[in-house]
Amino acid sequence: MVVPFVWMLSTSLKDNSLIFSFPPKWIPDQIKWRNYQEAAASFPYYQYFWNTFYITALTIAGVLLTSALAGYAFARMQFPLRNQLFLVVLSIMMIPGQVIMIPIFLLVKDLGWMDSHLSLIVPSLVSPFGIFLMRQFYLSMPKELEDAASIDGCNPIRTFFSIFLPLSKPALATISVFTFMGTWNSFLWPLLLISTKSKQLLTVGLLQFQNMYATQYNLLMAATLLVLLPVFLVYMFAQRYFVEGIAVSGVKG
């Protein structure tokens, strides 16, 4: 699993003429750190980085909010057709993204959001997987928490924000990482919807290192590593929440 990333790093530090040399050299004789500077200067890297960053941040915030609220409602609140609606959410998870791409494209076009970042943010604000994960997480929490909150006079909304939400860090961290990776690495959707160069995202910007006759593989690998670095950092920051247990104490009753 690690070998492709090591080869990517090796290629990013070589001269383009040495990439296909045989036998291959993992460590080039002359390491070209300048490739990273040239890669960032070859396309509007910082503009694309900002576009990708704020779209990803807004998407994560929206997914966390909708997933936590809907998961709590499906797990802890009683309302008509609750189980049937949850089955609808589960059925959406089974539909391939390619099937709903054309209907969403037509809807975005009718709303006048073509070539707008709204077309990348709004359709992604609700995640069926996130709702499912949060529902299962909240179902595992003891009912005594709700009983204690009810004795203290908390309504369901206050119970959610004061008790359930603070205890759901592991699940929220998992959803955040998956949403970050999906949004940050998104390629086809921004390629179809965004036509203005200054509004593009990093993944689409990598296409500028390829043309009909040649590909600058060393700069392409350097730029790809620059794009992957935030994903790696986010994962390293959030991984401790994956194994964090939940200690529920101080329950009144």
UniProtKB/TrEMBL annotation:
It is a multi-pass membrane protein. This is ABC transporter permease subunit. Its main location: membrane. It comes from the Bacteria. InterPro entries: MetI-like, MetI-like_sf. The keyword Disulfide bond does not apply. Keywords: Cell membrane, Membrane, Transmembrane, Transmembrane helix, Transport. Residues 49-238 form the ABC transmembrane type-1 domain. The keyword Protease does not apply. SUPFAM superfamilies: MetI-like. It holds the Pfam family BPD_transp_1. It comes from Paenibacillus germinis. It is found in: Cell membrane. Belongs to the binding-protein-dependent transport system permease family.
